[in-house]
Amino acid sequence: MEPVSNLSNDSLRLLKLISLYTGLVNGREKWIKSYALCVLIIYGIEKGVFETYDYAPVITLWHGYMRAVNMSMEAEADLNHLRKMGLIKKLRLATSKYRFVTAYMVSDKGEKLLKEIPETVVKKVTVTFTEDGEPADILIDESGEAYLEFPSGRKIKVPILEIEDVPYRSSPIFY
After folding, report:
1. Distance between CA atoms of 151 and 74, rounded to whole angstroms?
2. Of the four listed, 39, 107, 119, 123, which is most buried by Cβ atoms within 10 Å?
3. Residues 6+ apart with CB under 8 A from 9
4. Closest by Cα among 17, 139, 35, 14 to 77
5. Residue 140 class from Cβ within 10 Å (0-12 exposed, 13-18 middle, 19+ buried)?
6. 172 exposed, middle or buried (CB, 10 Å; 0-12, 13-18, 19+)?
7. Measured CA distances, 141 to 92, 147, 158 (Å)
8. In which band, very low, low, confident or very high, does the pLDDT at 25 lie, cut at 50, 70 and 90?
9. What is the mean pLDDT of the chain?
10. What CA–CA distance (Å, rounded) separates 76 from 54?
11. For the stretch 100-119, what's the b/e string if a residue is b when 16 or more beta carbons lie within 10 angstroms of its beta carbon?
12. Cα 156 from Cα 147, distance rounded (Å)
């Protein structure tokens, strides 16, 4: 098994986050769709759970429309790395309208690794995404806006579609 030391803290936190939303429930496998996982990752970045992740707008199919959506390329790279290591499983599903959706689930190997991770590394995930031991629900409305709803009824908007203007300066270089 891959030692914990070979993975970054953010990779371990991402694995823990996926584990909160996947696994066996009443004998059936529960997977998390990439849309929902993207919402969780953006919220985690905003709350400081992921220390090395950033996000930027990407044009993608979001809830049936081509939209500019905030996504994290660092998280995407970590997802691919976790999958190649066999710590998560990836499933591609076709919808009734012949569109493809990707879903993820922690593998048995990933579950074993989670037991080795120090609590100090993954505590931020538990504190940020759960309330009374229950993970927040991910809601995406008809317009594509995303929210997290906690068991207490608290509802938080996640800025998945809020594209920021970032000021920058450039100077011409003459040769």
Report:
1. 30
2. 39
3. 51, 121
4. 14
5. middle
6. exposed
7. 23, 8, 12
8. confident
9. 91
10. 11
11. eeebbbbbeebeebbeebee
12. 5
pLDDT band at 4 (very low <50, low <70, confident <90, very high): low
CA 50 – CA 138 distance, rounded (Å): 19
CA atoms of 159 and 168, how far apart (whole Å)? 22
Tell me the one-letter amino acid at 128. T
- DSSP character for 17? H
Among 74, 107, 78, smallest CA distance to 12 is for 78
- Encode pLDDT of 74-86 as tens digits: 999 999 999 999 9
DSSP secondary structure letters along 96-125? TTS-EEEEEEE-HHHHHHHHHS-HHHHHHH
Please name which of 78, 69, 84 lies closest in space to residue 159, comparing C-alpha atoms. Answer: 69
- Beta-strand pair 130-131/100-106: unpaired
Give residue 3's pLDDT: 54
H helices of 1-145, in order, are: 9-21, 34-46, 73-84, 108-116, 119-129
Contact of 135 with 20, CB cutoff 8 Å: yes
